[in-house]
Specification:
three-stranded antiparallel beta sheet; 23 helices; 699 residues; AcylCoA_DH/oxidase_NM_dom_sf (chains A, B); lipid metabolism (chains A, B); ACOX_C_alpha1 (chains A, B); oxidoreductase (chains A, B); Butyryl-CoA Dehydrogenase, subunit A, domain 2; fatty acid binding (chains A, B)
Chain lengths: 699, 699
């Protein structure tokens, strides 16, 4: 798709320049905003990181290999293009080769930003890169030792994959059945796949392309199993891409999205790898087959484990927040231009028709997602800082280990609930935005379909959402006793007695719109759900259930909801902390966005407040609902400014419906008319002309 | 995809034969069902219609043109295949050429069943047929006169489309801007598209294929506009498929689904059609340009208008219920075979792992959708009978018009809320089922992606759901005064005073599971939402808003929710009426399914019961939620039987995860291993081998 007009945000040399939008159909609403979108953008995002993103986007925009296609390529061509783009992207060496000199936190944040910039434009390339280069190097560094370093920075010489999931086992990683049996005689591990159910599958990059796999298999030596370990396993000859003997490797076949990724499966049959290919930071096998655990450096190992578990999930959170912003930007800009029905309802005068953004129902469909986009964007930016701080600390042995271990647990609980929250939120928003753009939302050029298809697998991979949230609820239940929350997410647990006695007591409707009301309600709700979960678990155990069963019986309406509300609360906590530092011209609207997000989440949980006797009578429900509608109405005039502040440039959003110029119908006309094959007769026309008609015309 | 094993349901001559399933992994759960799935199937579906479906499926299954593709064809090839299949399907002349002799109701029901059978296997062919043949013939018969009849049964000689939507107008049909101006001199209408915003668009079949359009345009004669009328407009030469001069016609380009449909746009420039091409049943223009309205036969015209409005929506309801059944069947069968985690949590012994259907959370994710599939299937079957009865009556002038008009309004209100209910339910279910099948649900061969992509546009086309529901709520608000509900959906309005005073008063938890409790709760809720809507409208009008604005201000939490609850209530009403006739061995489980559907809907509305003081204290919320979990647990043992009763044959469901043999991993293995290109090196391998590597290997 062509890039139209002068960009509103660009690099001039090393300077970030933001410019006003030229006059156009969005002017009326843009002028209603009572703040400067440029100030808000620079408040929401780090200018240095914005510059890095612009640098990447400018490069891709001018590279023929990174042009978008009007017609969907075949799956095969999609794979080829994604593979070529990945190689090119690696060659670009973003952010720059100087990066290794920077301290860990700064360096990693920049790498993450590069990933965000790539993921929001070419998500499949980003996934291939993350799996095949980023995760691989990372794991080598954190789980391997000196002898594996040479693999970590191999650039385009190697492409890797991470083979963990098996056909019959996903979330339950301990039950993986692929074996690596040490043979002292040849000093090698012999890898075997017992049957098809234990074939590694869904492995990204494995289907057609990868040359080496990071394989997780049960380590056996001297007849004993030592659990899951990671091995470097050559898959294909890098010169020919022909798989090595002893391997059956193939592509998963057609999927319902991510067509550019070659997800694959592999079965091993007495496949040998050298002993040295075990990633041996935490444990090793001696040449004669002794298993040795080497927990000499627990701080580093803990950090490594954490980073491996969470880094991918934090990346998904960042990508989700970008996709959410794109979807909402498209739908809100569309709603400000698209008109439908008029107050008098009759007559042929179009000028009376209202933009659909004026309708209560339409505001209510979109603005809570816009509020979520803002809150979750701030949250993920701020949380990333916390996250990297903890990872950094955990890699330094000087820190006291006890506190660190609690911090690592808390990070894990936060990520395990926030990744589900953000991916589900984005899933719902992309669908609602598609529907809110009507039939035009069904165009590929609208991009909402792609955004939806990208987020869909995110709820499953890197930890199935429904399984992940259980790790958070288990942690929260432990916190009630332990009260150890170094990052402060459960600090309020110590006020348990006071908070649990709180009751809904609001005079004016507007009070429910305050941070104080929303956060106190959440604190009560979280403690209530802990009680409820705990009670149900105890009841089940008293009735004879084992702990595993008792936990399962306390998921619905209890533990699962607990994780959800905790994630929402945490996101709001980070958000309000950040916006307290905003200048006053921004604070009002940022506050309203926080309130709208908080209340529209609480609205879905209202029954718990009544069930737990926090509220009784009509007021709470009525005030929450009325406040949501009031906030929607007020945010209407701010909405185009909010979108301008959140949205990346048009090239990135890449939607015919969501351009910043607001020239919806001109842009649609260009898209439809410029499509080279739109108006040509199909090549196969003669096959569908009726035979009798053809006959007639011959006579 | 290959058809495996002996079908469980087949035609032997003219006999319908149902057979037990052969032994397999689903046996354990199948045996737990306390009823005979065959009895239930024959209770849920009309055996004559089942036979008709089997006849169609058998024919398609043996036709090379109707084989499924493992790899996704290009969009162009998709269009070609769909066009060829449409021609073949028309040639098959289902159900049979005798059909014209049958009475209207029976004939139409059979045509609808044919559409269902086609839509559940080849949805795009069904859509092309519905638009290009069914809707076209129907409209000719109902809006045209004798002179148009020859177009109605043209078979493959013509393919039509329905051109109503314009680029800038969808739901607001009155504002369409395409004009048809009568020119008495040449006795023709001159069609014009004032600008791109008035181009007809999204028209199915128009993009590449159709030869004639049913065009809706503003009729002008003698300088006066008479509103929207339907015209027959030749588009392409049937011999060459080349568009006629004066038309710019093209394809909408790449979409996010329905790739086989050639949705198109068209602009007219002084394009002339003969005067006779006006469909002139309700109004005509004389040769010298006088406009004459011919309302001589209001009964017929009313029926025609109704049929044109609603027939497509009833078709969508039927298709949604079939798609919903397929999605749920796939996910429930998968859940009964797929295992994950074990009570002891440790050890490598797989045999301890539980099928995921055993988990409370998983039951709660799937079984409410299974209950919805059952209830909505019964509803749509029963409602179709009512619908056809009313259409039939309205076509006969002998009926008293007053009552009929009320009946037609009620049908319209029912359809306008039920089409949104069912399409949204199916949208949510297909997504949840995809997620519940984890990564494997992301395979194209799982079919959940296709089911989701088919339902997605259904929430927009044939009346945008969010606009449609307003027609229902407007009607309901009028009913409060009028109390005229010949079909009985609002019969309880007359008990308004008594019902509004009702309060939640239940002793035992189990009482909330009864039909009586659920239906009474719904009646209270519907009346409460009518009050709330009315009150808000009045408040707005008292504050100076016009009626249009007042209505818009009362949508969220009020009118929109009112339509939703009315649709749920109506579906349950039809359902419980039907199952009261079930034999006792089926009644218990059917009752539980009704209760689960009702309660899981009410669960989402709980806050209204507290807000309206119907309930206070913990009991109602707690009992509703606990009952849902109890019902889920009880239905676990019945679930495989329910699925066997609901599900069409394997060929139709066409999912590697949802086969009735339950051999999940065998089927997956075959699918992966039989894919011809899965294990071959990509043709483009040399493009992604590193140059330096290549260099090295040359040295």
């Amino acid at each position: 798709m062509e890039f139209l007009g002068e960009p509103r945000m660009e690099l001039q040399g090393d300077q970030l320049v933001l410019r006003d939008f030229p006059p156009g159909p969005l002017d009326d609403y843009r002028k209603q905003a009572q703040f400067d979108w440029k100030k808000m953008k620079l408040f929401l995002e780090d200018p240095e990181l914005l510059k890095l993103e612009l640098k990447i986007w400018n490069r891709l925009r001018n590279d023929p290999l990174f042009q978008r296609h009007e017609t969907e390529p075949t799956t095969e061509e999609n794979k080829r293009l994604t593979a070529l783009r990945l190689r090119r992207y690696v060659d670009y060496k973003f952010p720059s080769s100087d990066i290794l000199k920077l301290p860990y936190k700064k360096r990693t944040r920049m790498m993450m930003t590069c990933n965000e910039a790539l993921a929001v434009t070419f998500p499949e390339v980003s996934i291939k890169y993350a799996i095949g280069v980023g995760l691989f190097s990372n794991t080598i560094v954190t789980l391997g030792t000196e002898r594996h370093r040479r693999y970590a920075y191999a650039g385009n010489h190697l492409l890797s994959c991470l083979a963990l999931t098996e056909v019959a086992h996903g979330s339950n990683t301990k039950q993986m059945r692929t074996t690596a049996t040490y043979d002292a005689h040849s000093q090698s591990f012999v890898i075997n796949t017992p049957d098809f159910e234990a074939a590694k599958c869904w492995v990204g990059n494995l289907g057609k392309q990868c040359t080496i796999a990071l394989l997780f298999a049960q380590l056996y030596t001297k007849g004993q199993c030592h659990g899951l370990h990671a091995f470097l396993v050559p898959i294909r000859d890098p010169n020919t891409l022909i798989p090595y003997p002893g391997i059956v490797v193939g592509d998963m076949g057609e999927k319902i999205g991510l067509h550019g990724i070659d997800n694959g499966f592999v079965l091993f049959n007495n496949y040998r790898i050298p002993r040295e290919n075990l990633l041996n930071r935490t444990a090793d096998v001696t040449p004669d087959g002794e298993y040795e655990s080497s927990f000499t450096d627990p701080g580093r190992i803990l950090g490594a484990a954490l980073e491996n578990l969470s880094m991918g999930r934090v990346g998904i959170m960042q990508e989700s927040s970008n996709n959410l912003i794109c979807a909402v930007a498209i739908a809100v800009r569309y709603a400000a231009v698209r008109k439908q029905f008029a107050p008098n309802g009759e007559g042929n005068n179009n000028s009376n028709e209202l933009p659909i953004i004026e309708y209560q129902l339409h505001q209510w469909r979109l603005f809570p997602h816009m509020a979520a986009a803002t809150v979750l964007r701030v949250f993920v930016n701020e949380f990333t800082e916390t996250y990297l701080m903890v990872v950094d600390k955990s890699a330094s042995t000087s820190t006291e280990i006890e506190d660190l271990s609690d911090m690592v647990s808390e990070i894990h609980a936060l990520v395990s609930s926030a990744k589900p929250l953000m991916t589900w939120q984005c899933r719902d928003a992309t669908q609602e935005c598609r529907e809110a753009c009507g039939g035009h939302g069904f165009l590929k050029a609208a991009r909402l379909g792609e955004l939806r298809n990208i987020i869909d697998p995110c709820v499953t991979y890197e930890g199935d959402n429904n399984v992940l949230v259980q790790q958070t609820s288990n942690w929260l239940l432990r916190q009630r006793q332990k009260l150890s929350s170094p990052l402060g997410s459960c600090a309020f647990f110590k006020d348990h007695a006071r908070i649990s006695r709180c009751r809904y007591r609001v005079g004016r409707k507007e009070q429910v719109q305050t941070e104080q009301f929303i956060m106190e309600s959440y604190q009560w709700l979280i403690l209530y759900l802990i009680e409820e979960t705990d009670k149900r678990q105890n009841e089940a155990q008293e009735a004879g259930a084992d702990k595993f069963t008792a936990r399962n019986e306390a998921q619905v309406y209890r533990a699962a909801m607990l994780s959800r509300t905790y994630a929402e609360y945490t996101a709001l906590r980070y958000y309000w902390c950040k916006i307290s530092k905003a200048e006053s011209s921004l604070r009002l609207v940022l506050n309203e966005l926080g309130s709208l997000y908080g209340l529209s989440c609480l609205d879905k949980h209202l029954a718990y407040f009544y069930q737990g006797s926090y509220a009784s009578g009509p007021e709470m429900s009525r005030n929450v609902k009325d406040s949501i509608l009031m906030l929607c109405k007020r945010l209407k005039s701010q909405s185009l400014g909010i979108i301008d502040a959140l949205a990346p440039p048009d090239y990135v959003i890449n939607s015919v419906l969501g351009r910043s110029d607001g020239r919806l119908y001109d842009n649609l006309e260009k898209t439809l008319m410029q499509n080279p094959k739109a108006r040509s007769r199909p090549d196969w026309w003669y096959e569908i002309v009726d035979d009798s008609t053809k006959l007639q015309s011959k006579l």
